[in-house]
Amino acid sequence: MFKESLSFKAVLYAAAMVSAMWIGFLLQHLGWFEGCSGAIIPLNPSGLKGIFFSPFLHGSLEHIFGNSVPIFVLIFLLFQFYPFIGKKVFFLGWFVSAFLVWLLPPIDIFTGDINHVCIIGASGIVYTLAFFLFFSGVFRWNMKLLTVSLVVALYYGSLIWGVVPEELFSHLPEPSRISWQSHLSGAVVGIIIAFVFRKNGEKNIRFIWEFPNYYSEKDDKLWQEYKENHPDDFLELPYRKKEDLWDHLDEIRKK
After folding, report:
1. Buried b / exposed e along 117-149 (16+ C-beta atoms within 10 A)
2. Which residues make beta-bridge pairs with 119?
3. What is the pTM assigned to this prediction?
């Protein structure tokens, strides 16, 4: 039963994205991408190419390991439960959130200075998918999709802290290298896409008991089984012939 319901494409898409991330990481450390090459550089025209390449670049093994597992799980959930709109959600969320990151000025929240930063990693996609999957189930109010929302909230609920600068709740010896701008952009875009696509893709299936005014004898299996097992109870009952005035004509005359 589980194998029949499992989508092979969902596993394939998730594995393909994670494989591409590791290939990019390997090429990066072989010298194909040096410095800020391939990274998103906010408000810098040369940083626009990072919209396409940055998800495949990571600063360390810890960084890529931290993104690989959630990327695989979230992409799998996306294409398993939203197969008809999965590609739209994935690519739209990826490019729009990355472009939004490029538009955000990298301002130091304490000094107000604009910093030159290079943003790499797939965390923007992670946040986009996580927030889409959670809010899509809420907006659709579908029991199956709400279960997916709860799973995402259970395992990735702590992601909510990543949408604000780490310096606000931690005393760091140096500025954090975590891009809260990517996280915030992904979260906002994920919520918007979930709302826009709330009536697309997965149909909102309603069960018969959700229609209190609906009843069909054909859908009542217990009633149908009773009729099959007790056919004698449904024979035509003898009925009284309708009286006809002319049949009592002689009696009327005698009176």
Report:
1. bbbbbbbbbbbbbbbbbbbbbbbbebeebeebb
2. 40
3. 0.71
